Amino acid sequence: MNSTPNPLLSDWSQASQFPPFAAVKPEHFAPAFSSAMQQQRDEIKAITDNTQAASFDNTIAAFDRTGRQLNLISMLYSNLLSSRSSEALQAVELEWAPKLAAFANEVASNRALFARIDAVMQSGQAAAALTEEQQELLKRIHLDFVRQGAQLSGTASDRFGAIGERLAQIQAQFVQNVMGAEKDYTLQLNDKSDLAGLPDFVIGGAAQAAKERGLNGHVITLSRSLVVPFLTYSSRRDLRKIAYEAWTERGEKHATYDNHPLIKEILALRLEMAQLLGYKTFADYAIEDRMAGTPAAARALMIKAWEPAKQKAGRELAQLQAAAKAEGLSDELMPWDWRYYAEKVRVTEYALSDDETKPYFSLKNMTAAMFDTAQRLFGIQFKPMPDVVGYHPDVKVYSVTDAKSQLIAYFFTDNFARPFKQGGAWMSLYRDQTRNLAAGAAPSIPIVSNNNNFARAQDADSTLLSTDDVRTLFHEFGHGLHGMLSNVHYARISGTNVLQDFVELPSQLFEHWAMEPSVLKRFAKHVTTHEPISDDLLKRIEAAANFNSGFETVEYNACTLIDLALHQHPTPASLDLAAFEEAELTRLGMPKQIKMRHRLPHFSHLFSSNYYAAGYYVYMWAEVLDADAFDAFTEAGNVFDPAVAARLKQHIYSAGGSVAPMKTYLAFRGKEPAVEPMLRGRGLLETA
Ligand SMILES: [Zn+2]
Asked: Which residues have a catalytic role annotated?
């Protein structure tokens, strides 16, 4: 018998407790998952065994309370997998990913449980005796089950399950084909003249790529991080054309890795799945559960940005054409010329190097700036807790208190890249906010974490950030505040548990303060001279941000429009995809020098899972909201206006999913979001 207790089965649900970072070992997860899953099974059985009629309290609120321990263990597990992984922990993941998925499926297909949830939904209790938040929770939980096929029976139910399995299989095949097509292709750069125009970092990357493939010299591959710099700097127009065509046609004209048949099957299966659930098309099914509500609403927004973006791209093209002429190119520009001449224009008109900006953006000062912004907007204070030990020495822990000095959250930062840490930046939770707990339990105080992958300076505090890094820091902190300020009753709708096209509002909105001159004037001080950043540099940072935005908006919006059209097509199995893409783009008046950011045969957002299917538009949807929301401060004449900030806190950062998204937005803003602030923010409204 093992006498050492499993630390994962200890309790860290109370305000003063933290996950058992020091004690936990990979081998603790398997027994803890088994035990916590059984516990949730028992909790659900207590609900379904109840002989009393189903009610909100004994079914919906009770279900929201189940799985508390499994949830806490899962949060710690996924955080460690991302931030402090190991081979042993990865082995746990290989074994447990399918088991956890199967358990989630077991809960979702529990017929006795859904029968009670459905009974509450049908009883009419909703409108009569429930609070607005309770009604939202009831709708949310009911919809969770319905969208996973809970209302289907017999052959329809079997077919729904089979479609899900087949989709998982061929979506994985789609991703492998894209990787295979990328892996198979190299453009060999044979002699010195083939390297013309390339800066050292591209030459180094091309040499490294050759070495990894056992080749001599230099090769260009189809990875975005190598081919885009090649297209940006190579002065060899003939080689740019070859690389560009190979890149934009990957997954298409390839004997082994042709993705067209897979795409048609994926689209047909999604359509069938949506129709089994009673929707006309997959786009209707997907967008019903987003703020946009309907495919038409999503498309209408994309079209509103389309014409101004095309016009801006037209003005950009004229600039590029002039630069090309100055270099002696009299031909019409082609798609493989855009990035090359855009770089020439950028250097002459908007020159801005990291060397010039970085000394003003130390991580220490920018962290102070984001805490100060949160304090001025929402009245909250961050205090370091040096005695709390996280999972790695780089982790810093803060307590977060409100204006009345009440503890509302803990905040972790883990800012630096290192081995066994996932790339990118993200916000995550170790504990979520809820008050729906066992009788007598104190409310759950959230533990929120922000991860970044900045390159650490020897002295961590003097780490310097690029302007993109600063935006990322504020972006993730915006998600973090959404978790920390959450003030709802139920776990399923707390914090960032909101719809997919709403969840980026709090994060993208917070980015506006990152580049706000009044904030930077106070905090962006030169690391050695301590001089505040100059007005001139601030202006140039702002101008550079919108350079080439016509091109970027066109290549993005074309993707969103094709995505929506494909997922509304009545007979996708019969499509000739290349012809469909071309006909749609011609109808939209796509400039011929620009192609879709992702063409269909390698559009992994759409075909690697259902998550972004009929949903590539969500980035711009959220951008409309954040630009319009920040305009509320601009209109008030103060980027820290207390009345606007109070409404923002109450209706956006604290509300979770307790109120329908458009309703809560209206409560904050007093009007529906306008598109113009987003267009202005992207520089699409300026005239020639
Ligand atoms: Zn985000």
From this structure: 476
